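Need a sequence for this fold. Nothing fancy.
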């Protein structure tokens, strides 16, 4: 799984970021991170579907502890296929 999820790009950020399209560049990084988490969750559930309730519990605990970090606390938090409402 590491080869699918770990980016070993070690160049300085000023060389990696497309400053002419920083919003597009950031959106691509967010999409990459979401795809990596989706792959992780899918892999866990493929091996052991009973872990779904564990993953849901972890997601809710994360929201309880770190929900204040969201830019818009009224917006639902998306984790994989689940939407966690405030």
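Here you go.
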């Amino acid at each position: 799984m590491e080869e699918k999820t770990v980016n070993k790009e070690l160049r300085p950020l000023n060389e990696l970021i497309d400053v002419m399209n920083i919003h597009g560049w950031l959106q691509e990084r967010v999409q990459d991170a979401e795809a990596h988490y989706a792959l992780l969750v899918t892999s866990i559930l493929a091996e052991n579907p009973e872990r779904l309730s564990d993953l849901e519990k972890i997601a809710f605990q994360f929201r309880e502890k770190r929900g204040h970090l969201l830019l818009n606390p009224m917006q639902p938090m998306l984790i994989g296929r689940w939407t966690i409402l405030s």
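For context: The mean pLDDT is 77.
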